[in-house]
Amino acid sequence: MCTASFARGVGPRQRSKHMDWKLEGSVQTTESPELQGQEGILEDLGEDGLSESFQLLQIDVECDCQDREPLPTSSTTWCSKNVQRKQRHWEKIVAAKKSKRKQEKERRKANRAENPGICPQHSKRFLRSLTKEKLLEAKHSGPRLCIDLSMTHHMSKKELSRLAGQIRRLYGSNKKVDRPFWICLTGFMTDSPLYEECLRMNDGFSSYLLDITEEDCFSLFPLETLVYLTPDSEHDLISVAFIFSLALQDVDLNKVYVLGGLVDESIQKKVTFQKAKEYSVKTARLPIQEYMVKLQNGKNYHSEILAINQVFDILSTYLETHNWPEALKKGVSSGKGYVLRNSVE
User: Fold this and answer.
1) Whole-number Å distance between alpha carbons of 167 and 94
2) Do 325 and 291 meet the contact criterion of CB atoms below 8 Å apart?
3) Which of 53, 36, 35 is nearest to 44 (CA)?
């Protein structure tokens, strides 16, 4: 290798310059990949060729640097096209929402100007306060409804879950009516599986405006004030004068209406009826047979057993309308196999 370099007329001084240049070129190649491809060519050039090639390389590097656009140093002033597109899309959504709120506000303002007698829409906070006031008033002067939960120890977890859902729907319906009942859950143990299921399934159950007691309804209230509503009773609510007033304009506030909190998929007969008879408590049933008829269906299924929230819907609707067909239509679904007489005729 060394003899070949001297044969080409390269002196010691020139050879040292050549080696120094190679060292400098090797450093540059680590910074500029374009110089690596020309390293073999530069080794075979003389002093004149070296300076000329170096000038050409320097020009190429400078041109390449000039062609590249410098990126902004601040990350806040530059973002990708995808981010810019998403930002524009979000700005359009926000602008559309603002425009919609403005139009709705102008529409309500125009309605108030055209109909000055109509009350303005109340806020949710006001409605919650009004509901709370109605429920607390019902505790002192409203009709009373008792849910007997003393039979839940025979129920499965699935049945307990269904009963917890019925309690939630009953309480929700009671909050919406103009004249709510005061609800009392009796025989309800706070360490029972049903209580845990109510806490799990019903949001805010611990703050429900109702009474919860471990006492049985038969020991909590005077027996003469109790009316146990059961489908197995011999008396219907129409013929029993002690349940509703003679004018049929109100319920008897001296009575406590009891619903059996029982979900029994095995359909045991007369469970709530036998319990009422055990304590010599008056019983009554809904007038389904008087206003409704059996509808023929493929399964030949007909049942007067309703969920507690369905019974409550019937009672509250009748208290408001004093119309049994309308009340029964509200609570008795077509799946029970019964329809109103007028709908068949």
Assistant:
1) 41
2) yes
3) 53
Q: What is the pLDDT of residue 82?
A: 87
Could you give the C-alpha distances from 14 to 11, 21, 44, 124, in angstroms and in order? 5, 10, 13, 94
- How many whole angstroms separate alpha carbon 268 and alpha carbon 118? 53
Residue 111 belongs to what H/E stretch?
helix 81-114
What the block records as the tokens of 134 is 């109605």
| pLDDT at residue 129, rounded to an integer | 86
Strands 338-340 and 292-294, sheet pairing: antiparallel
216-264: per-residue pLDDT in tens? 999 999 999 999 998 888 887 765 544 444 333 445 678 899 999 888 6
Contact 232, 281 (CB under 8 A): no
Dmax (CA) for the chain in angstroms is 136
Concatenate the DSSP letters of all residues of 123-186 into one string.
PHHHHHHHHHHHHHHHHHHS-EEEEE-TTGGG--HHHHHHHHHHHHHHHHHHHHSSSPPEEEEE
Query: Which residues have C-beta within 8 Å of that of residue 276, sequence separation ≥ 6?
Result: 228, 230, 258, 282, 283
3-state secondary structure at position 4 = helix
51 pLDDT band, cuts 50/70/90, is low
Instruction: Name the E strands within the chain.
Output: 144-148, 182-186, 211-212, 226-229, 256-260, 282-284, 292-294, 338-340
Which two tokens mark 86?
């998403």
Q: Inform me whether the pLDDT recorded for 322 exceeds 60.
A: yes
Of the candidates 191, 151, 156, 119, the residue with the CA atom closest to the CA atom of residue 271: 151
CA distance 96 to 94: 5
User: What is the value of pTM for the model shown?
Assistant: 0.62
Tell whether the model's pLDDT for residue 163 goes beyond 90: yes
